[in-house]
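Z., the sequence and structure:
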Amino acid sequence: MDLERKVEEFKRKARALGLKVTPQRLAVYKAIAQRHDHPSAEELFEELKDKIEGISLTTVYRTLSSLESVGLVQRVPTLKDKVRYDARVEPHSHFICLKCGRIYDLDTIPQVNRKEVESVGELLSCTAVCYGICKECKGEEV
């Protein structure tokens, strides 16, 4: 989906969820939606600070938190301290390189034994994170 369609879909969903589409929210969403490297709040702030007057790191954090709380972005679990974000919220998995820290999207989610999971509680969502060494770090062609 191209950026323009993603932004229109974002606006529609945000309004349907009762979330105002402010210039800051729109700018943060656009910045994350056009990236595939799963940026941190700090990286998004660095990208936006000269483009959006008065934006602060706190604003970026609050915006990401509000977008995450209504399901318009998701956190990507990492082994490092920085939280990373993804505008792709449909079910998918991630591969995280333990050497360079790069995060790759995987289109599939491994099968889950629903009976086992549901013996513990109600399954609401599921994601998988695979850790390894990417082809670039291993010196192979991607």
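The longest strand covers residues 93-97. Strands lie at 74-76, 84-86, 93-97, 103-106, 129-132.

Let me know what you think.
H.
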